C-alpha cells in the first residue's frame, strides 16, 4: 500500500508541470477583462475569528483508549477591493492541536483535500501529540460585472439544497458526524456564472487537479418557478460522467427539498452506474420550535457490513458507507441567548445510529460558546461502531 501511494504522488508531480501553462492562460484572459479598471483606489477590509475546541472521545472498539484533544484555531480573512467589481480574497488558518494520544480520530482535519491542485498547508510542528499547522484555505480573485461573476483560485463552490446530505455537491461533501468542521474545504477552480434573468443563471466550473488530465468540469443551471428553486447539473468528475438535479421550495407551509445524482461507473472497471438522492422536509412549528426530516438513498453504498469501504470514508471520498439513512432532528430557542439542537441519524441497513445534541449560548455580539455530544448506538462492525462517543466544548470570538 505504501508503494502504491508513493507511485501516485510521483505521477501527480510529473503532471504538475502542466499546471502553470493552463493556469497562466486563464490568468491572461482574466487580466484582459480587467483592462481599464485599475483606476479605482484599492480598499482593504479585514475579518476573522479565533476559536478553541476541546473534546473527549470514548471509542467502543477494543484496544482503543479514550482520548482528549484541544484545537486552538485562528482564521484571518483579509479582502481587498481592487477596482470596480474586482476583489482579491484570502483566508489563512493557523491551528494548534494537542492530543492525549497519537491518532485521535477526526472526520474533519486531514491533510487530504481532493479538490485542490496545490498543497498550501505547512506543518512547522508535527509531533506525536502536538501539531501546529497553517494553511491557505481560500485565495481567489473575483470580478463582478452586470451580466455575471468570474472567480479564479481556491474558493467555495456550493451546490445542492439538502440540510444533512448533498448528493450533487461534488466539491465539498461533509460527513454529518463531523461536528468539528466549520468551513468546507476550498476547491482550486475557475468559475464563471452568467445571469440569464431574474433568479436564473448558469455556472461553469473547471476544477484544477495535480494531474491535469484528471481535472473536473461541470455546469449548473438554476432558475425559479413560483415558490420553487430548481437546478440541473452535469459534468465529469473523478473520470466519471454525472447528471443531477435539485429542488427547494414551500408546500403546505413546510419547506421541501430534493436532490438526485446519477454517476457513470462503467469506466475503468469501477462497477455499475448508481444513483444517490435525498428527500427532505422542515417546518417552523412555532417561533421557538423547528423540526427537520431528511432521507438519503446512497446507491454507491454497501448492503452488507463486511463490504464497507472504510478507506474511502477516511479519505473523504464518501461520507456514508451503507445505502439508506434517515435523519430526524430539530432545534428549540430556550432563551433569546440560548438555542438547543438535536437529532438522530439512522442507518436503515445495519440498524446502527448516532444521537447528536448541542447548545449554543450567545455570550456577546461577537462571541459564543457551544457544548455538544455525539453518542453512537451500534453492534460490532456496524457503521457507527467505528465512531467514538464524543463530548465537546467550543468557544469562539469573531472580529
Structure explained in plain terms:
- It is built from 3 helices and 19 strands.
- The protein is mainly β and 399 residues long.
- A hairpin with a 2-residue loop joins β10 and β11 (240-251).
- The longest helix has 16 residues, at 19-34.
- The protein is globular and about 60 Å long.
- The model is unreliable at 1-29 and 32-36 (pLDDT under 50).
Write the H/E string, N to C. Answer: HHEEEEEEEEEEEEEEHEEEEE
**Range of helix content:** under 10%
Shape: globular
Mean pLDDT: 87
Structural class call reads mainly beta
Radius of gyration: 22 Å
Largest sheet: 18 strands, antiparallel, barrel
Multimeric state? single chain
Alpha-carbon distance between the two ends: 45 Å
User: Helix segment count?
Assistant: 3
Count of individual beta strands: 19
Strand-residue proportion: over 45%
Instruction: Give unreliable regions as ranges.
Output: 1-29, 32-36
